[in-house]
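Let us practice reading a record.
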Amino acid sequence: RSTMTEKTAEEHKELGNIAFAAKDYDLAIQHYSEAIKIDQTKHVFFSNRSACYAGKRDWETAASDAKECIRLDPTFVKGYYRLASAQIELKEWDAATSTIKQGLSVDENNPQLLKLMKTIKQVKKAEAHAATAARPTRAMDATMSNELAELQQQYIQTNREYNTVKANIVMAQREYKTDEITKAELEKLPQGNDAKMYRGIGKMFLLSSRDQVMDHLDKTIEAEKKREGELTQKLEYLERRIASQRSNMQELLSAK
């Protein structure tokens, strides 16, 4: 018989948590799905699976699981956070705003939801600014008006890309900081400690030595910091691009 069906829902959840920590999202989804098959009333199973789909950038499915999580437990604030995060990635600004407000009605000072609301306000402000800057005057001819409208769309798109990159930088920082905390805890163990340690490799977990786990963490931290650096460079480029696009719109408006 398959060992997958012999485990309890909670056992599948714990195995899913281990796989998620190792960023093996497919395996984690498999375990959370098995847990849901056994018990469809646990909101946490859907919340955790939603996080896995978010890790795979499958925002539609992440949103679907988050909605089911909220349906099962409307007081679980993290469900609102997961849904709003997916809706923001899908550029569903109004839906995300509504979700955040519902979550804040449960916990009005939730820092994660307040941060998401701030992100949405920044995006909308940028779009409103672009729309105002690109509004054609009576003196503009059709060609100039079309050119300004095109610049407006480019400006809005660049601002959206800028906010996405900012979010990805935060994600990369969170990943390597988590690994650094794990590494610091392992460093407290004495050399030669023979405690069993596992690390994720694909869809499997390999029994590893302390040194092997430490080496794996070092490589992961290095990779995430490199990704952070690359994203930071892209963010700086987008900042220059936004400034240039804003300047171009202002010049076009002044050249009546």
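A brief commentary: The first strand starts at residue 197 and ends at 201.
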